[in-house]
Predict the structure.
Amino acid sequence: MKKLINEPDRVVKDALEGVAAAHPELRVDVENQVVYRADSPVSGKVALVSGGGAGHEPLHAGFVGPGMLDAACPGEVFTSPVPDQMLAATKAVEGGAGVVHIVKNYTGDVMNFQLAAEMAADDGAKVESVLVNDDVAVEDSLYTAGRRGTGATLCIEKIAGALAERGGDLGSVASVARKVNERSRSFGIALTACTTPSAGTPTFDLPDDEIELGIGIHGEPGRKRVKITSAAELTKIAAQAIFDDYPFDKGDKALVMVNGMGGTPLIELYVVFNEVAKILAERGAEVERALVGDYVTSLDMAGCSITLCKLDQELTELWDAPVKTPALRWGS
Amino acid sequence: MKKLINEPDRVVKDALEGVAAAHPELRVDVENQVVYRADSPVSGKVALVSGGGAGHEPLHAGFVGPGMLDAACPGEVFTSPVPDQMLAATKAVEGGAGVVHIVKNYTGDVMNFQLAAEMAADDGAKVESVLVNDDVAVEDSLYTAGRRGTGATLCIEKIAGALAERGGDLGSVASVARKVNERSRSFGIALTACTTPSAGTPTFDLPDDEIELGIGIHGEPGRKRVKITSAAELTKIAAQAIFDDYPFDKGDKALVMVNGMGGTPLIELYVVFNEVAKILAERGAEVERALVGDYVTSLDMAGCSITLCKLDQELTELWDAPVKTPALRWGS
Amino acid sequence: MGLIAAARKGAIVDAAFVREWIAKVSQSMQEQREYLTQLDAAIGDADHGVNMNRGFSAVMEKLGGVESEDPGEILTVVGSTLISKVGGAAGPLYGSAFRQAGKALGDGSELDPSRLLVALRAGLEAMQKLGAAQVGDKTIVDAFVPALDAWQKELDAGGSPGSITTRAREAAEEGMRSTVPLQARKGRASYLGPRSVGHQDPGATSTALIFAALERVAGSS
Amino acid sequence: MGLIAAARKGAIVDAAFVREWIAKVSQSMQEQREYLTQLDAAIGDADHGVNMNRGFSAVMEKLGGVESEDPGEILTVVGSTLISKVGGAAGPLYGSAFRQAGKALGDGSELDPSRLLVALRAGLEAMQKLGAAQVGDKTIVDAFVPALDAWQKELDAGGSPGSITTRAREAAEEGMRSTVPLQARKGRASYLGPRSVGHQDPGATSTALIFAALERVAGSS
Ligand SMILES: Nc1ncnc2c1ncn2[C@@H]1O[C@H](COP(=O)(O)OP(=O)(O)O)[C@@H](O)[C@H]1O
Ligand SMILES: Nc1ncnc2c1ncn2[C@@H]1O[C@H](COP(=O)(O)OP(=O)(O)O)[C@@H](O)[C@H]1O
Ligand SMILES: [Mg+2]
Ligand SMILES: [Mg+2]
Ligand SMILES: [Mg+2]
Ligand SMILES: [Mg+2]
């Protein structure tokens, strides 16, 4: 394993110190692993708290700031944070209008956020939890833990964050978040596994000519292993998996996110974006907004995920609203 | 080789089509491989044109837009563009105030830009060429092609672009660009080689426990091969190489850029940033501005480069000025 | 003092016993860190060993500063420390189990195998309430449930504390092995669908280690 | 019609000859694409073969649409096409060389080895003016210069066009091999410093291929 780190057990804290040094507009509690926007709590504003295992950077800490999250709680690499973190964050950002927890649907995240929400409620905080589960690679059934939360997390944090910044109340912020989740679908492809600092070896073996379809963001293998083929073919497979569950047709306006898993160069992501745009055009749907880059990653995994969110006027306006975070910034 | 592409020979054009589909605020001439800001030529404004081999994305196309470049000319992967591209770009963006060519110091780039500048001059265009050569890993001497242009390119394009946007004339835009170059130094480290689509195999072999110090951005090996060590040690080596040539001491204000080469996850870049911040603090220098992420890349190479630019009030103001490009955006 | 010895003077489990048990668990989580992580790499995200080891190291540190002579209080501290330090799925699950077990013990410095069983049942219940897993879902539960059933059976048969914990450990290991052919329905492994078949569940494995540690304490004297 | 045949009726090099030469160069760049790229991978950026092949394929396409019977005009087209299509260092260097050589030939549909030599010298000069490389810098120049010197020598010795181009090719290959022990002072390879020693220069190698192609045309009839 070759990584730019000191000790595996220090990675998250060292990185958080780096975040603190690079971003004076954030307040970082390195010890408890919570990243706050410096001006929190913002009184009268609904606060957004998210969190999850580290290794998905810039998610979530890179999305803390005006117009998006009030606090992010990174756990150890690929390990959900502990309730103490979310409890501390919830108390610290509570501005009197309540707190929304944005929780990616993983057993660990769900349970740790649940315990935190219970404790916070005991302390009298108003908490609404929003579950993100956009990954169509997992069938949502009795036989799985349900769909995973992946790329849509960014869309939800951005759009709900915008509404909160505009003064939306707890109920409406939570419901616009759920609305984005309902209108978003993702599918991921891995060309390689990734290597966690503590494990030190790739999370799975993948022959030189094979790839994993339907991967998550924790280095877990996907649903199916196939021979590598062209970007056009792979994009067709991903898009079809999305359309089978949630079609985009004539007149539909899509927020298209082609997200790198961490080890894939940007030039390839644009090649994939081009294929997505062609496929949507064939169906008469439009690329209304676009995001191309590494946003919800899986350490050094090579590959990408495609997220399609069906926009309406409300969502488009909130997407376009100003945001000022380390990883997403416009309009300010 | 596993890549998200169609055919190796199509990568650049496919990606450019993706850029066109994702960024309506840009105008893309896919055939001639030139990316323009949609509103160019901006009359009365000094225009900035840069270019170089592809494979360094978001450099340069990702930096086209208000406050930065007017046009970018990507060549084939790791191959300098041809004079025809820069000539076409120069003519198309010329707004009556002259054009600045920002040229990274590589034999190919220099010669192709030179031929283009000569042809443009024959057609009566006022062209000023600015050479970027910030890489301290190369001794600038009779025995080399001179220092390479790497991370400082971004700083130069941002700061000179800001001055041009403010109405600076040809001479002052070119000279602020040269000033940034004189005050910037970079050093790169590779944990792995990269694989070009056309070659299909890594540009060099690197054992599992060794890294390359002083690499460029074209997959060429560095000056020295050593065993991998901690991020703290590696950062010391890189910083020392910079300080030996251009010290940062008490009171100096630095723009610190920790740049990923493409295959290294963001969490590691923040670990490295933390080490740079500590080293500067020890010397009494300050982190005045920070940039952490993949900006001047080398395809899927794992590793990073550190760029330090010594800011003064003029440069800081121009750095903070609004910029609106796909890869760098703030204040608008 | 081991359970056997305790048994002679009325099968008393005391604070020292619980501390010894947890110390042995912590030790074996450290020894099996890589193994558990490798199991998790196959069908999860390669961190279970790291998580368990981080958690129980924190527990040992914490217990060092706890004076209590009350076994129940000690187990409660173990549980809340796991909740606060482990994260992931295993943290809240094991954490709630130990905490609830501790609470169920109530106070009093001594207890016997039957009261300890009642406490562990309460812990299992808390875990299932939180995680909603049933036997056959390829989780911790697949080792935990049979272990307690075997415990009950040997207890009813009048077995010694030593034999009780041996049966429990055997049943836990059998339950652990029984997860190999199963398709996961809970946790990360469930994302793999049929591809989760053929791999042993990491959590069921760590549970077997916990009962093995208990047997070693009970066996010693 | 080959140079030998041409030689018989007064050593005439015509448009057909130049087209044949360039066609053979293009063919060998295609055949040696991987080889040149591998050489460039060792001390450069692994694209020289790709660049040269892309350039000469474009040249062949371009020449297909050029009627001219004027060898000089053809070489000029070759040069400007390379400049427009290759990029990198090799593009402007080879491009300027061929273009200048073409211009130096001036018009007229026929020429002999001595006039061709004068043209190639003009091309070499243009290349050195642009790239400022001297013999020993581990570049194209290390093969180009000795090739023309050998050409001159054999010409003075009254050698036949066939023997002239053979000597030139031999000298180019010798120059190519001579780059192996050199430390690069120009181009990308110079960044490696001492580490560039022990590798054959890709550009010197492609130059040797160009002279080899010339020999094959001159040798045929
Ligand atoms: N709902 C659940 N109920 C009981 N045990 C579970 C449940 N979900 C997961 N587990 C157990 O957790 C183990 C994984 O723990 P760990 O790797 O530490 O957490 P994570 O899966 O979050 O990385 C699995 O092997 C499984 O035994
Ligand atoms: N200044 C120069 N003069 C002559 N030849 C040069 C010079 N610089 C580089 N070269 C030649 O160019 C070759 C590399 O060409 P190529 O790989 O196509 O371009 P690039 O180096 O831009 O990738 C080198 O092997 C060398 O022979
Ligand atoms: Mg985990
Ligand atoms: Mg090149
Ligand atoms: Mg796990
Ligand atoms: Mg090259």
Summary: Confidence is low (pLDDT under 50) at residues 1-11 of chain D.
